[in-house]
Write a structure and sequence with these properties.
Blueprint (H helix, E strand, L loop, with lengths): L9 E5 L5 E5 L18 H7 L10 E5 L6 E7 L3 E6 L3
Antiparallel strand pairs: 1-2, 2-3, 4-5
């Protein structure tokens, strides 16, 4: 999305419970850091980038929990937005 709550790096997840949620992707600060020796590589940056980013709150952007059957497929449509398909239709 170009604007609104989904104007961020995000991942859409469908759950067996019927919940569809959109989570913001949080990147470690080390991914934004340039190398300091001019070699083009930052070995410690790669190591730090593999560590998870923990926050106090869940980085939830959108939550939908109205269906009672498992989510079987998720699609993104530029006009319609998130399309979720459930086991029973």
């Amino acid at each position: 999305a170009q604007d609104g709550a989904l104007n961020a790096e995000a991942v859409v997840v469908g759950f067996e419970s019927g919940r569809v949620a959109v989570f913001r992707v949080l990147l470690p600060d080390s991914l934004g850091r340039a190398d300091t020796d001019g070699s083009g590589a930052a070995p410690e940056g790669v190591l730090l980038a593999s560590q998870p980013v923990l926050t106090e709150d869940e980085p939830l952007l959108l939550d939908h929990y109205f269906c009672k059957s498992p989510v079987t497929s998720l699609m993104w449509h530029p006009v319609l937005g998130i399309i979720s398909i459930y086991r029973d239709g």
